[in-house]
Every structure is written in structure tokens, then in C-alpha cells.
Please model this.
Amino acid sequence: MAVPTTAGGSDSALPPAGRRAGWASRGLRRERWLGYLFVAPMLLFLLGIIFFPLGHAVVTSLYREAGVTIRFVGLRNYTRLLDDQAFWNSLRVSLVFTGLSVALHLVVALPVALFLNQLRRGRTTLRLAFLTPWMVTPVIGAIAWVWLLDPHFGVVNYLLTSAGLIGANKVWLGEPMLALGSIIAVDVWRGFPFVMLIVLAGLQTVPKEQYEAASIDGAGPIQRFVFITLPHLRYLLIVATTLDVINTVRTFDIVAVMTRGGPVNATEVLPVLIFNTAFQGNRFGPAAAVGVVLLLLLLIFSTLYILLLQSERAGEAAR
Amino acid sequence: MTQSRHAQSSGGPVTRRQVLKGMAGVAAAAAVPVGRARAAAPAVRSGTITLQYMTANLTEKQYEPVWKEMIAKFEAQNPTVKVEPILVARKDHWTKFVTAAKAGQAPDVVAVDIATAAYNGYLRPLDDLWSAEPASYRQAWSADVLSAASWQGKLYGLPSWGGIYGEIYNTEMVKRAGLDLSKPPVNWKEYLEWSKRLTKEGQQWALAILGGKTDSTTRMLLMWIWSNGGEAFNADMTQATFASNPKTLEAVEFYLGLDTVHKVVAPGAVNINYLEQTTLFAQEKIATMRNAYWGVAKVVGDNPAIKGKIAVAFPPMNGEKKVTMTTMAADSISKDCKHVEAAWKFAKFVNDKEWGVKRALVSNWMPMRTDLTTDPEVKKDPMLVQFLEYGKVARAYPLPHPMWADIAANDIVAATQSALLKQVPIKEAFAKLDADLAKKFKEL
Model:
């Protein structure tokens, strides 16, 4: 019987069993080292671009700077966060922004995906059209929206007043609630295609026979959606939502361009607070501490995502 | 099996070691030209040094022809020096500078907020270079101007240009409102009367209050405070007095009241900064704007039809002492600069008379050298002369505080926005600001 080897040679050239086992084990060891060697460049790369900055941020969060003087303050930057109104306001804004944006991504993406899935003609063209906001660089999209929402020259006010929907021009980015609503709306515009794409992929895997059987049994479109489509999409929707939460809670570009966190910090999500604290306030230690807290928040969602994937794989294996 | 396929294709067994050796050989062969190219690069550019130059206004259209000509001429005179302009939008200028400085890569010659940058160790003191210059050269700047470019007794910048603020009017809009610009408003009462007449609800407004998240919000607020004889801080800048100084609070209430009470202000104040203000003026949505001379160049650039319809007057006062504001930009050398001699040479070149005059006439940046204010070319421009006249009673900006960049663009803006949005009464918003700043000052 041939022993799998990594080096050349035929069966007739194999050494006796004892030596053979040792040789094979050495070969496996060498193969393992070769494996490490192959992944080493990527590991070093990741170390350089992810783990080193991460470690640096954690170290920075333990220091406080006053001009050229830097002193070690331990966890004081973290304990100060507990008393910092700006941090709690920012956390609240982040949760509202993320919660509403993610929910609305789903609310918009689901019907659009269902619509695209039913199309027989022009599906590719429309899919591309719906994907456009996602393909546009967020900063470019945000700048365009700033002009669209301009209180004096913006198209949005013009259209809404022309249609009689609003009496006078609105200052979309100038009032706290309107500004938060506006950045959420722009994030929904930019972010729903991602969820739509995942849902559309899921819809294409639902067996048509199930719909046919349900129709024969007299099920209407709503019943078919509730009892066939949704159960099939359940896992994908959870995965899409979890990924979307991870993406949305990190949003910086749209807010930075459109409001810079204003007015009166009404749209200051955590990444914008980090930016403002570090680069405008020159307080890199406290900013790094907020960054670490944001990282922990993201880790919670990432862990949830991994657990979901594992449970689904376990479920599939059981089936 | 992989092994047998290798054996078949090459006529003999190929081990992984051989494959690895082969890959290493290919990688080494590929690396040779790269290494050669890298080695060759310094040779090609040997003897040439590159200076990075970054100021907040390089991206602004009215300055572009001047700085392009200036750099070309400097490079022609100094063939071993290349000047690389770093183009960053005004609002991102400070962020870009801090990021680069933190990474030890700050541009060589920069114009930034001196107190904050010097306090944080981002700039190189220039005293050794300055004192090596002949006295005749050093006399071109007044002691006041040099002190505004210093921090804790050390000189950190060569004062280059500034902006003296006046009240700029659209003469046509004023005429249409039945007002006479030969008698512009000189006090707050008259200004309010004018403002009411210049406002047509929903169509045009007298002015725009700057309340956006940049330090221009603070500039405007300070000017109104000073015009009432108020002070925003105590003399050594260890305490904020926005709510505790009655004159200061009165000025803040009057200024913000133009929006919240009198409604003579363009809507959306909390989103308006320099760019939005000049756009509104260029589009004839507002009839007046508090701005420096460069604002005139900007609006004419935005709307050439407005040329000839602009006049300037001294800002209306409510106090006894006439006062306005002048901002100052100075060319500094960053602490990361490796070619200090060349950088100093370039900073001096930028501040030569020729460029000072061109900056004034083409870009409308006010000259900082005292010997330029009497230059015959400068004197040919009546509006420029008028602004320079106002400069005699102008107070310097930014204020000399190491946290000024943050205080001006965040804390004061937040209080102003809160008051404009009527979230809390004006007094309460600014009392909170005083308390917040007291806490911040303690951290220094």
C-alpha cells in the first residue's frame, strides 16, 4: 500500500515501515513549515497594517498629551469617558443612527429584491441601476447630497415646495432632528444595495416547486412570502443584518462631509467624535480610548456573526 | 496525484523544495530591476531637494496664479530646489497638517495656527534664522505683527498676509431698499434698521450669521463682542467670560438676535461658513457680509456680474472704541523639515515685496509688511487702501492660546449653534461654554 508522500519516489523505493513512519512524520512537519512559510508574507502584512496600528491605538489610549509632554495615565482616559457627556451623546447618536439605518436598509432592500427577482426583462440593467449608490464613493455621494439638500439652492426643497409638500424651504442639515434624519436617509440610499444584493442571491435559491405547490394549495402571494420566502431567507437576512450593523456603526465619511457631527453634536457618531477629539482637539489619548470602545462594540457584533455562521453550519451538517 | 503530474510533465520528479527554489529565483530576478530602479532614483535627482509647501489657500482660485508664478520663479532662481505645493481644501488643512506632523512627515513650509502648532511641538523656532538677517530686513515687520507670529517669546513664523474685516455691501440691493450708502450704518441701531429694510422674507436677507462648524463662526462672534467693548476671555486667557461680562453677553444676544428675534438673517445659520456666506452674497441672496477683502475676490469669481456693485464700510459699533479684526497667516518651518536653509530661503522669497503686492492686488490678501502699505501699486486700489485703513484699529486673530484651534472650531461653535437653535436661552448656552472652557483650561 502506498504511503502518501510529499517527496518523489516510487513504492518500490519506500523504506521499511518504522523508518517509513518517521520519514512521513518528518515530511508532514516540513510540509507544515512550508505552509507557514507561504502564509508568512500575508501574516506579516496583516501584522503591519492591522495588529500594529491596533496595538498602537491601545497604547495611545493609556497616555495623555499636553503639548510636547506625554504622560502615562493608565486607564484614566477610559474612566473619564464615563463622565464625558460628549461620549454618551455620541454613543446614543451612533445607536440611533445604526439602528434606524440598518432597519431601513432591510425595509427598502427586501421589496426591491423581490421586485427584481420577479422581472423577466431588464433585470441586469435595473440591478445595476439600484447598485449605483453603493458603487459611488461615499464622499462624492455625500457632497452631491449636501448640494441637493442646500436650503437656498437645493433641488430637494425645490421639488417638495413645487409639489406642495412643504410650505417653506427646510434647512435639512441645520436642525438636529432633520440633520440626523437626513444623514440616515443618505446612508439608506447608499447602503441598501448591499442588503438587496444578498437578499436577491437568496431569492434565487428558493425552489420554484414550493411556490407552485403552494399556489395549487390556494396560497396567495402574502402567504407564499410569509411561509416560503421568509423562512428561506431567514439565515441570509440575519447574516446581512449583522454585517450591515458592523458596516454602519463605523460610518464616518457621510457624516463628516455632510454635518461634521453638528448641529450641536446631533449627528456626532462615534467615528466622528474620534476624529474631532483627535484632530481638532489634539487629544489623541482620549480619542484612542473612544476608538478602543468602538472596537469592542464591533467585536461583539463580529462574534455574533461568527456564532451565527457556526450554528448554521452545524445545522446543515445535522440535516 | 500532484507528484506524478509533475513527474510526467518535466520528465522527472520535482520536489516542493525545487518549486520553492524556482519561486525564490523568480522573485529575486523580479527584485533586481526594482532594486536597480530604487538605487538609480537618488542618482537621477542627486543635488536636488524637494520642499513641501502647504497653506490653507492654495486651492483657492484667486490665489492660484500668484503662487504658481511664485514657485516657478523660485525654482528658476534655485535650480537645486523643487517646491511641491500640497493642495488641501481650507476646512481640511489643519487635519492634514496634524496627521502629517504626528507621522513626522509635516510639510516643510506651512501656514498654520501658530500657538496651537508651536505648543504641540509641530513647528521649529525661527529665532536663529531671523536674528541672522540684517536689521534693514527685519524692520519690514512691526513688533505687533511679529508678536502675533510668536509663542512664549519665540518666533515661529514670518508674517505673510492677513485679512482685515469690513462690512461689505451690495450697492444695488442697498439702492433698491431706498438706503443711502454714502451714510452707512455706524451703530447697531442703524444697522438693525438697515437690516430690516434689506430683508424680503423668503427672497433676500440683510446678512448671514456664520454658525457652521469652523472657526469662522468664532471670528464673527468675536468681532461683534469687541464692537461692544466686550471681551470673550480675561487678559491672560485663563478664563472665558462670554456670560459673565455684561458687554460680551449683550453683544452675543444682539448678534444672534438678528436671527432668532429679528429674522433678518438667511436661514440655515448653523450650516453657514465662509464659502456659503460668499455664495449667498454672490447670488444676491444677502445684501451685506462681514468679510475681509479676499471675500470680494471670491464673490466676483463666483459671479462676475456683481463686479462694480460692491462697496465697503467700517463695521457698525456699539462701544466707544472703534475696532475690527485682522487675521494673520505666517509662513513657518515644520519641526520635520530636513532642509531648513532652503525652507527659510523659500519662506523669505514668499514674503518678498513683489509677491506681497501681487497677493494684495490679485488675491486680495492684505500685506503684513509695513513697507508694502505705502507701495504705489497698492495705493492704486482704493478698496484695498480702505481695508488697510481699517487695519489700523484691528485686533489680531487667532487668539494666542494653545487650544485655540479646538476652542474656536468646536466649543464656541457648539454654544452658538445651541443658542441659534433656541435649545437653551443664549445666556445659559454661553454660561455652559464658560464652564466647559474652565474645565478644558485646567487640563493644560
